[in-house]
Amino acid sequence: MKKLLYLFFVIVFSSVSAQENKEFQLSSHILDITVGKPVENVDVKLEKYNETTKQWVSVINKKTDKNGRIGDFLPKNKDSKSNYGKYKLIFFTEDYFNK
C-alpha cells in the first residue's frame, strides 16, 4: 500500500480526453512522482458495473504508452447514453515496482 502513495494517478473523465481526442470519453495518465517521470507499459483494466447482476464486467485491457497515458478508453458511441454507468480502472503496478 505504501508503494501506491508514491505513484500518482491522474484519471481524467470527460467527454473529451486530456489528449483532445474527441473519439473517446475516458483517458488515464500515470506518473511516478518519486522520479518525476511517466510510467510506461503498465497494464490497466477498465471494468463496468452491471446493475442487473451486481458484478463488475471487464470492458478492455490496455497498456500505458511512453508518456504514461492511455487516451483511448471508452469509445464514444452515437448513442451517448450507452456509456452511462459506473466504471473503474484497475492499475497493475506490481511489475513496475519490482523493477
UniProtKB/TrEMBL annotation:
SUPFAM superfamilies in the record: Transthyretin (synonym: prealbumin)
Annotated GO biological process: purine nucleobase metabolic process
Record keyword Ribonucleoprotein present: no
First-tier enzyme category under EC: hydrolase
UniProt key word Lipid metabolism: no
Domain Transthyretin/hydroxyisourate hydrolase: 26-99
Keyword tags: Hydrolase, Signal
Signal peptide: 1-18
EC id: 3.5.2.17
Organism domain of life: Bacteria
GO molecular function, one term: hydroxyisourate hydrolase activity
One Pfam family per UniProt: Transthyretin
PANTHER family membership: 5-HYDROXYISOURATE HYDROLASE, URICASE AND TRANSTHYRETIN-RELATED
Protein name: 5-hydroxyisourate hydrolase
Organism of derivation: Chryseobacterium balustinum
Gene name of the record: hiuH_1
